[in-house]
Amino acid sequence: MKYRATTLLMLVVILLLGSAPLKPVAAQGSDAFPVTIEHQFGSTTINEAPKRVVAIGYTEQDFLLAVGVTPVAVRYWYGDENNAIFPWAEDKVEGAAPIVLNMPYGNLNYEAILALQPDLISAVTSGITEDEYKLLSAIAPTITQTSDYINFGMPWQEVMKMIGAAVGKSDEAETIVTDVEKLFADARAENPAFAGKTVAVSYYYADTYGFYTSQDSRGRFFTDLGFVIPQELIDVAGESFYADLSAERVDLLDQDLIAIMNLQFIEGGREALEAQPLFSKLQAVQAGRVVYLDEQAENAVGFSSPLSLPYALNAVLPQLQAIFGTETATATPTQ
Questions:
Q1: Alpha helices, H only, the chain
Q2: The pTM is what?
Q3: 199 shares a domain with 116
Q4: 36 and 148, same domain (yes or no)
Q5: 48-102 pLDDT per residue, tens
Q6: Are residues 214 and 273 in the same domain?
Q7: Which residues pair with 73 in a beta bridge?
């Protein structure tokens, strides 16, 4: 998941290693080792179940925690906080909380990673380059995403299966994917009004409007509920997973639904956004067909992990049902 310039500016280079002891965190595997993981830079063979996993992908911790592996260190999503475990994952941590590595995109701290003595570096959601991969692989076996998708574009299902295989938890990973996919299937069945409705999964920053496509996890969240990202938006984005819009093309956001994905970063919040002349003139805005999420709900959609997605559904579905009606809906999915 790659973040826009404004979000990347919030990433602070702070290493919070402290004096934490290097205690092994066992990843008891159910698969036979060695295992070989194919990825965009070739393949990585892992000879035995990892005991010290360092997660440098921006959302990697959730996938590891989902299969019962607590990483020794994780990379913070943005900011300089000292806790990178979000509410939906807190009860999955076993033992000491992971050390937090604050490393902006493109600025890995190899010395800090080496000091953690990893036996696996999980970098599937990191967007690393081949040169970075080579340097990381000199420290420990490293896995990254496949070449089938743009950087940060690998669907959560495939991320879950890859990480599950790497730590010897393939069966658990498959079950997790099935369970979460069922939540979306149930939501579609209970809310047929969503099917075929167009959506602009949008953001606003520094007087600039933009949107995400279905190549991004935020776009996929809504398409997985039955919404459609119109071809005209896909054409504007081209091979990218997002696109900024000129003032003359803000009308492209005027779809059946507008979902604002960065309200927490908009100074003045919803009131300020709706006071913007270009935005306020959109028919979807005037008709109240806009979804605004609080900070944690935005984070949950953006994380797009097996742990965050149930949280996101519980936050988003009531708003969507208020806009489009519940029809045959009787309940929202639960975790």
A1: 5-8, 60-66, 110-115, 130-137, 156-166, 170-190, 217-223, 231-237, 269-274, 277-280, 283-286, 295-303, 308-324
A2: 0.85
A3: no
A4: yes
A5: 999 999 999 999 999 999 999 999 999 987 654 677 899 999 999 999 999 999 8
A6: yes
A7: 54, 99
